Amino acid sequence: MPNSNITVFMPSVLTLIGIPGLESVQCWIGIPFCAMYLFALIGNSVLLVIIISERSLHEPMYLFLGMLGVTDIVLGTSIVPKMLGIFWLHIPEIYFDSCLLQMGFIHTFQCIESGILLAMALDRYVAICYPLRYTAIFTHQLVTQIGAVVTLRAAILATPSLVLIKCRFQFYHTTIISHSYCEHMAIVKLAAENVQVNKIYGLFVAFAVAGFDMIFITLSYIQIFFTVFCLPQKEARWKAFNTCIAHICVFLQFYLLAFFSFFTHRFGAHIPPYIHILFSSLYLLVPPFLNPLVYGAKTKQIRIHVVKILCSPTAFSFMRS
After folding, report:
1. How do residues 54-91 score in pLDDT, each as one tens digit?
2. Full 3-state SS string of the chain
């Protein structure tokens, strides 16, 4: 292993060590990680096929769900193959530019996912609080514009992080990253120069995205709950509330894991590194894994079409063979 005290000028290759302290069991940790990734890949692909092929599902809520599926597939694919290469094949090296590219994909699509969750919350807010105006407000054109704005916001906020690392840093204390993937702060901590600007910008992006989105998502659901509980019929209240349960589950698991990972990485000096890295990895793996389960189980229209696919004659003959 290279000496971590050597100052390196513009390294071309970095080394990801995986999960510090758990190197001896990384091969076993890779099994559930791989299983979650494969399930996320298959589950989100099935959701996308159903949403694209069924014209009855070409509605804003399902279109946002399709966008979420694409985001989850890209997020998982950005980290898991390399992670399994470290755990199983003992290939920890990664080119510096490839590491920055992976970091860019991760943070861009994290930001996109947060924006889509906000869009889905606003969609439910309008559908429940202003049902008569819903179709007039949430047109296909508006959905396309929201998708474009969410993607553009993510690209604009993620790009400076890459530029600040690439252009500001020339000397590094070490080329060894104590992480299982290329995370922003993990790379910044390698630098042998002033990293204050990078840290401040990282905090700004985190609060500008997660803070802004979470506030408006919370306000949307508070207003939804007030509207639901004011409905005169119990059955109507339950039906309206039931449509939001899946969104609330996804919203909670995404932001709870996000904030735990964020704060432990910056302020959790007494937390063992393997705890932080495990949770930061789960933060990227659990949402793509759970989203198909949550929406498949709680959304009746999705459930019906999944059953149709599984019970089709082609699927039946395939299972018999």
Report:
1. 888 888 989 999 999 999 999 999 999 999 999 999 89
2. CCCCCCCEECCCEEEECCCCCCHHHHHHHHHHHHHHHHHHHHHHHHHHHHHHHCHHHCCHHHHHHHHHHHHHHHHHHHHHHHHHHHHHCCCCEEEHHHHHHHHHHHHHHHHHHHHHHHHHHHHHHHHHHCHHHHHHHCCHHHHHHHHHHHHHHHHHHHHHHHHHHHHHCCEECCCEECCCCCCHHHHHCCECCCCHHHHHHHHHHHHHHHHHHHHHHHHHHHHHHHHHHCCCCHHHHHHHHHHHHHHHHHHHHHHHHHHHHHHHHHHCCCCCHHHHHHHHHHHHHHHHHHHHHHHHHHCHHHHHHHHHHHCCHHHHHHHHC
- Which pairing describes strands 13-16 and 176-177: parallel, antiparallel, or unpaired? parallel
Contacts of 7 (CB under 8 A, 6+ apart): 171, 172, 173, 192
**68, 8 contact by CB (below 8 A):** no
Contact assessment for residue 120 and residue 66, using Cβ atoms and an 8 Å cutoff? no
- Weakest mean pLDDT among 3-17, 158-172, 182-196, 217-231: 3-17
- What does the pLDDT read at residue 280? 84
> In the β-sheet with 13-16, what is the strand arrangement from edge to edge?
93-95, 13-16, 176-177
Question: For residue 235, what are the CA distances in angstroms to 130, 218, 228, 299?
Answer: 19, 24, 11, 17
The model's pLDDT over 127-160, given as tens digits with 9 standing for 90+, comes to: 888 888 998 999 999 999 999 999 999 999 999 9
Residue located via tokens 């979650």: 36
Mean of the pLDDT values across residues 187-208? 88
